[in-house]
Write a structure and sequence with these properties.
337 residues, alpha+beta, four-stranded antiparallel beta sheet, 9 helices, 34% helix, elongated
Length: 337
Amino acid sequence: MKQTKRKTERVLNKKMLERLIIIHNAIKANLYPDNRRLRKLYCEQTGYGNVGEATINRDIDTLRTFFHAPLEFDRQKGGYFYSDDKFEFALNNISSDDVFYLSAAKTLLSSFRGSPLYKSISDVIDFVADTQGIGKSSLLDRIAVPPRPAFSSDEKTWKAVMRSIREDMVVEFDYSGRWHTETSHRRVAPYQILMDEGRGFLFALDFGKDAVRLFALDRMENVSVTDEKFSLPDDFEFSSRCGGGKFGAFMGEDPVDFVVDFYGDARQFVKECVWADNQVVTDFDGEGKTRIEFSSTQEMKVMEWILARGENAVPVAPDWFVEGWRGKVRRMAEMAV
Protein backbone atom coordinates (compact mmCIF):
# COMPACT_ATOMS: atom_id res chain seq x y z
CA MET A 1 0.00 0.00 0.00
CA LYS A 2 1.30 3.47 -0.93
CA GLN A 3 2.35 5.47 2.11
CA THR A 4 1.91 9.22 2.48
CA LYS A 5 5.08 11.18 3.22
CA ARG A 6 5.24 13.17 6.40
CA LYS A 7 5.62 16.95 6.20
CA THR A 8 9.28 16.82 7.19
CA GLU A 9 9.93 14.50 4.22
CA ARG A 10 8.52 16.96 1.69
CA VAL A 11 10.63 16.95 -1.45
CA LEU A 12 12.24 20.27 -2.40
CA ASN A 13 11.90 21.24 -6.04
CA LYS A 14 12.62 24.31 -8.17
CA LYS A 15 9.18 25.93 -7.84
CA MET A 16 9.12 25.34 -4.11
CA LEU A 17 12.57 26.89 -3.68
CA GLU A 18 11.42 29.87 -5.74
CA ARG A 19 8.54 30.41 -3.33
CA LEU A 20 10.75 29.96 -0.26
CA ILE A 21 13.20 32.59 -1.48
CA ILE A 22 10.40 35.05 -2.31
CA ILE A 23 8.87 34.47 1.13
CA HIS A 24 12.24 34.90 2.83
CA ASN A 25 13.08 38.10 0.95
CA ALA A 26 9.70 39.61 1.79
CA ILE A 27 10.14 38.82 5.47
CA LYS A 28 13.74 40.12 5.51
CA ALA A 29 12.49 43.36 3.93
CA ASN A 30 10.26 43.83 7.01
CA LEU A 31 7.10 43.77 4.90
CA TYR A 32 5.35 41.65 7.52
CA PRO A 33 3.57 39.71 4.73
CA ASP A 34 0.60 37.47 5.41
CA ASN A 35 -0.47 34.52 3.27
CA ARG A 36 -2.46 36.68 0.83
CA ARG A 37 0.44 39.13 0.36
CA LEU A 38 2.89 36.28 -0.20
CA ARG A 39 0.68 34.70 -2.86
CA LYS A 40 0.43 38.03 -4.64
CA LEU A 41 4.21 38.60 -4.50
CA TYR A 42 4.87 35.11 -5.83
CA CYS A 43 2.59 35.59 -8.84
CA GLU A 44 4.02 39.05 -9.55
CA GLN A 45 7.63 37.90 -9.44
CA THR A 46 7.24 34.61 -11.31
CA GLY A 47 4.44 35.34 -13.75
CA TYR A 48 2.41 32.36 -12.58
CA GLY A 49 -1.35 32.84 -12.54
CA ASN A 50 -2.15 31.48 -9.11
CA VAL A 51 -0.80 29.73 -6.03
CA GLY A 52 -2.92 28.16 -3.31
CA GLU A 53 -3.25 29.34 0.28
CA ALA A 54 -2.44 25.81 1.52
CA THR A 55 0.75 25.79 -0.58
CA ILE A 56 2.07 28.94 1.09
CA ASN A 57 1.16 27.54 4.51
CA ARG A 58 3.18 24.42 3.73
CA ASP A 59 6.10 26.60 2.59
CA ILE A 60 6.01 28.51 5.87
CA ASP A 61 6.07 25.18 7.71
CA THR A 62 9.00 24.01 5.55
CA LEU A 63 11.00 27.14 6.41
CA ARG A 64 10.46 26.42 10.08
CA THR A 65 11.09 22.66 10.08
CA PHE A 66 13.58 22.14 7.23
CA PHE A 67 15.59 25.38 7.41
CA HIS A 68 14.98 26.13 11.12
CA ALA A 69 13.79 29.65 10.35
CA PRO A 70 12.82 31.65 13.50
CA LEU A 71 9.44 32.54 11.99
CA GLU A 72 6.79 34.30 14.07
CA PHE A 73 3.47 35.97 13.25
CA ASP A 74 2.91 39.54 14.46
CA ARG A 75 -0.80 39.91 15.28
CA GLN A 76 -0.68 43.69 15.40
CA LYS A 77 1.08 44.09 12.03
CA GLY A 78 -0.74 41.12 10.52
CA GLY A 79 2.23 39.30 9.02
CA TYR A 80 5.29 37.13 9.46
CA PHE A 81 8.68 38.24 10.78
CA TYR A 82 11.96 36.68 11.98
CA SER A 83 12.52 36.77 15.71
CA ASP A 84 16.25 36.68 14.91
CA ASP A 85 17.02 39.28 12.25
CA LYS A 86 20.43 37.67 11.59
CA PHE A 87 18.82 34.59 10.08
CA GLU A 88 19.67 34.03 6.41
CA PHE A 89 18.23 31.54 3.95
CA ALA A 90 21.18 29.47 2.66
CA LEU A 91 20.62 30.20 -1.04
CA ASN A 92 20.65 33.92 -0.35
CA ASN A 93 24.24 33.80 0.89
CA ILE A 94 25.69 33.28 -2.58
CA SER A 95 27.80 36.23 -3.71
CA SER A 96 27.67 37.79 -7.17
CA ASP A 97 31.17 36.40 -7.79
CA ASP A 98 29.95 32.89 -6.95
CA VAL A 99 27.00 33.29 -9.31
CA PHE A 100 29.40 34.36 -12.07
CA TYR A 101 31.63 31.32 -11.54
CA LEU A 102 28.62 29.00 -11.49
CA SER A 103 27.44 30.46 -14.78
CA ALA A 104 30.95 30.15 -16.21
CA ALA A 105 30.95 26.48 -15.20
CA LYS A 106 27.75 26.04 -17.18
CA THR A 107 29.49 27.53 -20.22
CA LEU A 108 32.46 25.20 -19.82
CA LEU A 109 30.07 22.23 -19.66
CA SER A 110 28.40 23.25 -22.91
CA SER A 111 30.26 20.56 -24.86
CA PHE A 112 27.78 18.17 -23.24
CA ARG A 113 24.75 20.19 -24.33
CA GLY A 114 21.98 17.79 -25.22
CA SER A 115 22.82 15.31 -22.47
CA PRO A 116 20.43 14.87 -19.51
CA LEU A 117 23.35 15.69 -17.20
CA TYR A 118 23.90 19.08 -18.82
CA LYS A 119 20.21 19.94 -18.63
CA SER A 120 20.02 19.06 -14.93
CA ILE A 121 23.15 21.04 -14.03
CA SER A 122 22.11 23.94 -16.27
CA ASP A 123 18.67 24.15 -14.64
CA VAL A 124 20.20 24.26 -11.16
CA ILE A 125 22.76 26.92 -12.11
CA ASP A 126 20.14 29.05 -13.86
CA PHE A 127 17.84 28.77 -10.88
CA VAL A 128 20.53 29.79 -8.37
CA ALA A 129 21.56 32.73 -10.55
CA ASP A 130 17.99 33.87 -11.14
CA THR A 131 17.04 33.72 -7.47
CA GLN A 132 19.84 36.14 -6.61
CA GLY A 133 18.35 38.84 -8.86
CA ILE A 134 21.77 39.35 -10.43
CA GLY A 135 21.09 38.26 -14.00
CA LYS A 136 23.67 37.23 -16.55
CA SER A 137 26.88 39.18 -16.57
CA SER A 138 28.10 40.51 -19.91
CA LEU A 139 31.50 39.18 -18.86
CA LEU A 140 30.15 35.66 -19.41
CA ASP A 141 30.04 36.42 -23.13
CA ARG A 142 33.84 36.58 -22.96
CA ILE A 143 34.10 32.94 -21.79
CA ALA A 144 33.27 30.35 -24.42
CA VAL A 145 33.85 26.76 -25.48
CA PRO A 146 34.64 26.18 -29.18
CA PRO A 147 32.02 24.15 -31.09
CA ARG A 148 32.41 20.43 -30.41
CA PRO A 149 30.59 17.28 -31.55
CA ALA A 150 27.16 17.16 -29.93
CA PHE A 151 26.43 14.68 -27.14
CA SER A 152 24.22 11.82 -28.26
CA SER A 153 22.55 9.42 -25.84
CA ASP A 154 19.06 8.03 -25.40
CA GLU A 155 17.40 9.63 -22.36
CA LYS A 156 15.91 6.29 -21.33
CA THR A 157 19.40 4.76 -21.33
CA TRP A 158 20.77 7.66 -19.32
CA LYS A 159 18.04 7.43 -16.66
CA ALA A 160 18.47 3.68 -16.28
CA VAL A 161 22.25 3.98 -15.89
CA MET A 162 21.91 6.84 -13.38
CA ARG A 163 19.44 4.80 -11.33
CA SER A 164 21.77 1.78 -11.31
CA ILE A 165 24.64 3.99 -10.09
CA ARG A 166 22.58 5.68 -7.37
CA GLU A 167 21.32 2.36 -6.04
CA ASP A 168 24.36 0.13 -6.78
CA MET A 169 22.23 -2.19 -8.90
CA VAL A 170 23.42 -4.55 -11.63
CA VAL A 171 22.34 -3.45 -15.11
CA GLU A 172 21.89 -5.44 -18.33
CA PHE A 173 21.93 -4.25 -21.96
CA ASP A 174 22.73 -5.16 -25.56
CA TYR A 175 25.98 -3.70 -26.85
CA SER A 176 27.79 -3.21 -30.16
CA GLY A 177 31.46 -2.46 -29.59
CA ARG A 178 33.92 -0.32 -31.52
CA TRP A 179 35.97 -3.24 -32.81
CA HIS A 180 33.59 -6.17 -32.27
CA THR A 181 30.51 -4.72 -33.90
CA GLU A 182 28.30 -7.77 -33.47
CA THR A 183 25.68 -7.19 -30.75
CA SER A 184 26.16 -9.05 -27.47
CA HIS A 185 24.27 -9.07 -24.19
CA ARG A 186 26.12 -7.59 -21.22
CA ARG A 187 25.55 -7.79 -17.47
CA VAL A 188 27.60 -5.26 -15.51
CA ALA A 189 28.12 -3.51 -12.19
CA PRO A 190 28.27 0.25 -12.97
CA TYR A 191 31.11 2.14 -11.30
CA GLN A 192 31.19 5.58 -12.94
CA ILE A 193 29.89 7.65 -15.85
CA LEU A 194 32.71 9.33 -17.78
CA MET A 195 32.18 12.42 -19.94
CA ASP A 196 34.84 12.77 -22.62
CA GLU A 197 34.95 14.80 -25.85
CA GLY A 198 31.19 15.23 -26.01
CA ARG A 199 30.46 11.54 -25.35
CA GLY A 200 29.31 9.55 -22.35
CA PHE A 201 30.85 6.25 -21.22
CA LEU A 202 29.92 3.75 -18.55
CA PHE A 203 32.88 2.39 -16.58
CA ALA A 204 31.74 -0.93 -15.16
CA LEU A 205 32.66 -4.46 -14.12
CA ASP A 206 31.63 -6.81 -16.93
CA PHE A 207 30.59 -10.07 -15.24
CA GLY A 208 30.90 -11.99 -18.52
CA LYS A 209 34.54 -10.97 -18.95
CA ASP A 210 35.30 -10.72 -15.22
CA ALA A 211 37.05 -7.42 -15.96
CA VAL A 212 36.32 -3.69 -15.87
CA ARG A 213 35.36 -2.19 -19.22
CA LEU A 214 34.25 1.04 -20.84
CA PHE A 215 30.91 1.10 -22.67
CA ALA A 216 29.80 4.00 -24.89
CA LEU A 217 26.33 5.08 -23.77
CA ASP A 218 25.22 5.68 -27.36
CA ARG A 219 25.95 2.03 -28.23
CA MET A 220 23.93 0.59 -25.34
CA GLU A 221 20.42 -0.66 -26.17
CA ASN A 222 17.55 -2.29 -24.24
CA VAL A 223 19.01 -1.19 -20.92
CA SER A 224 17.32 -2.62 -17.83
CA VAL A 225 18.12 -2.28 -14.14
CA THR A 226 17.95 -5.60 -12.29
CA ASP A 227 17.02 -6.23 -8.65
CA GLU A 228 20.54 -7.45 -7.90
CA LYS A 229 22.75 -5.29 -5.67
CA PHE A 230 26.54 -5.13 -5.89
CA SER A 231 29.27 -3.83 -3.57
CA LEU A 232 31.33 -0.93 -4.90
CA PRO A 233 35.06 -1.71 -4.49
CA ASP A 234 37.49 0.77 -2.94
CA ASP A 235 39.39 1.14 -6.24
CA PHE A 236 36.31 1.81 -8.38
CA GLU A 237 37.60 5.07 -9.92
CA PHE A 238 38.54 5.03 -13.59
CA SER A 239 41.54 7.30 -12.95
CA SER A 240 43.18 4.54 -10.91
CA ARG A 241 43.32 2.36 -14.06
CA CYS A 242 45.08 4.88 -16.34
CA GLY A 243 48.62 4.26 -15.10
CA GLY A 244 49.04 7.97 -14.48
CA GLY A 245 48.02 8.98 -18.00
CA LYS A 246 45.57 11.80 -18.73
CA PHE A 247 44.43 10.97 -22.24
CA GLY A 248 40.68 10.54 -21.78
CA ALA A 249 38.31 7.58 -21.78
CA PHE A 250 40.57 4.63 -22.64
CA MET A 251 42.62 2.17 -20.62
CA GLY A 252 44.77 -0.87 -21.20
CA GLU A 253 45.93 -3.65 -18.91
CA ASP A 254 49.40 -2.54 -17.78
CA PRO A 255 51.24 0.80 -17.71
CA VAL A 256 53.55 1.46 -20.66
CA ASP A 257 56.64 3.69 -20.50
CA PHE A 258 56.53 6.08 -23.47
CA VAL A 259 59.22 8.32 -24.92
CA VAL A 260 58.15 10.81 -27.61
CA ASP A 261 60.10 13.55 -29.38
CA PHE A 262 58.38 16.73 -30.54
CA TYR A 263 59.63 19.16 -33.17
CA GLY A 264 58.70 22.59 -34.58
CA ASP A 265 55.66 24.28 -33.04
CA ALA A 266 54.74 21.03 -31.25
CA ARG A 267 57.64 21.61 -28.85
CA GLN A 268 55.72 24.39 -27.12
CA PHE A 269 52.47 22.42 -27.36
CA VAL A 270 53.79 19.47 -25.36
CA LYS A 271 55.06 21.77 -22.59
CA GLU A 272 51.71 23.48 -22.07
CA CYS A 273 49.88 20.62 -20.30
CA VAL A 274 50.37 17.85 -17.78
CA TRP A 275 49.88 14.67 -19.82
CA ALA A 276 50.79 12.18 -17.10
CA ASP A 277 51.51 12.13 -13.39
CA ASN A 278 55.18 11.17 -13.84
CA GLN A 279 56.03 13.07 -17.02
CA VAL A 280 59.54 14.40 -17.57
CA VAL A 281 60.00 17.01 -20.29
CA THR A 282 63.49 17.79 -21.60
CA ASP A 283 64.56 20.32 -24.24
CA PHE A 284 67.31 19.38 -26.69
CA ASP A 285 67.80 22.77 -28.31
CA GLY A 286 70.87 21.64 -30.26
CA GLU A 287 68.74 18.98 -31.97
CA GLY A 288 65.67 21.21 -32.24
CA LYS A 289 63.43 18.89 -30.25
CA THR A 290 61.64 18.46 -26.92
CA ARG A 291 61.33 14.98 -25.40
CA ILE A 292 58.58 13.82 -23.06
CA GLU A 293 58.81 10.61 -21.02
CA PHE A 294 55.80 9.28 -19.14
CA SER A 295 53.74 6.20 -18.21
CA SER A 296 50.15 5.41 -19.19
CA THR A 297 47.86 2.46 -19.88
CA GLN A 298 46.15 4.45 -22.66
CA GLU A 299 48.26 3.41 -25.66
CA MET A 300 45.52 3.91 -28.26
CA LYS A 301 44.88 7.47 -27.10
CA VAL A 302 48.62 8.15 -26.96
CA MET A 303 48.89 6.95 -30.57
CA GLU A 304 46.08 9.31 -31.64
CA TRP A 305 47.77 12.13 -29.72
CA ILE A 306 51.05 11.59 -31.57
CA LEU A 307 49.44 11.20 -35.00
CA ALA A 308 47.51 14.44 -34.47
CA ARG A 309 50.82 16.36 -34.43
CA GLY A 310 51.83 14.94 -37.83
CA GLU A 311 55.51 15.16 -38.75
CA ASN A 312 56.30 17.07 -35.56
CA ALA A 313 55.78 14.11 -33.20
CA VAL A 314 57.92 10.95 -33.32
CA PRO A 315 57.68 8.09 -30.78
CA VAL A 316 61.01 6.70 -29.56
CA ALA A 317 59.93 3.94 -27.16
CA PRO A 318 58.74 1.29 -26.58
CA ASP A 319 59.84 -0.54 -29.74
CA TRP A 320 56.51 -2.31 -30.40
CA PHE A 321 54.68 1.01 -30.16
CA VAL A 322 57.14 2.69 -32.54
CA GLU A 323 56.62 -0.11 -35.08
CA GLY A 324 52.85 0.31 -34.79
CA TRP A 325 53.22 4.04 -35.44
CA ARG A 326 55.44 3.44 -38.48
CA GLY A 327 52.89 1.01 -39.90
CA LYS A 328 50.12 3.60 -39.58
CA VAL A 329 52.25 6.32 -41.16
CA ARG A 330 53.15 4.03 -44.09
CA ARG A 331 49.51 3.17 -44.70
CA MET A 332 48.54 6.85 -44.59
CA ALA A 333 51.32 7.64 -47.09
CA GLU A 334 50.08 4.91 -49.42
CA MET A 335 46.53 6.25 -49.26
CA ALA A 336 47.79 9.75 -50.01
CA VAL A 337 49.36 8.72 -53.33
